[in-house]
Specification:
Number of strands: 0
Low-confidence stretches: none
Number of domains: 1
Radius of gyration: 19 Å
Order of helices and strands: HHHHHHHHHHH
Mean pLDDT: 82
Oligomer: single chain
Helix content: over 70%
Number of helices: 11
Strand content: under 5%
Amino acid sequence: MKRVLAITWKEWRQTIDTPMGYVVAVAFLLASGFFFGNTLFLAGQADMRSYFHMLPLLFMFFIPALTMRLLAEERHSGTFELLATLPVREVEIVAGKYLAVMLQLLLMLVLTLVYPASLSTLGNVDGGAVAASYLGALLLAGVYAAICLFASSLTRNAVVAYVLGFAMLLFFFLIGQASPEFSSAMQDWLTLVNPVDRYQSMTRGVITLGDVIFMLMLALAFTALTKFQLERRKWS
């Protein structure tokens, strides 16, 4: 566990020592603030349903930017080979980097709590629905981060890692958009395997143990794939 935390701290320090982390965080807050303000001031709706509806789309653009350098840049610069020679396992490397990304995403979501706080001054806010939506957002961010970390393990180029991660997330997004065109049986199946549909269910205030376990297991599956990819490249 100490080695995992050491890697997490290394990635966190690198984030705050370089402008990239700040740029992504500020851009995310500006974009999310735009959608929130658009609903509040232009549409005249004092709720956060539209904001949470657009959040998966924002994640699709910004999470690959947070993860693209984590493994691709390490391999490109040769520092990953140096890291692999240390007494640290691949699972600890993946866990440390994944935890660092999740801390960044958690901080970004915490900063958006100003939105429901401002709405509470205008009227009654359904605190339970907002809390369920934020839980769903954190779980979806965890799945997306695991997918994009896997994408970063597939290449030495950070830009290519971004494109791969974006394409994978776009695939899940398009599945959700196209599901009404399929048969009822196919729609039910797509709902079961699509994390975005699970998230949308949570934004309606419905949290089930099955949805939470599915999101956690999907994130675990992609982190396991990342570990396998690192091991394969190590011995190839």
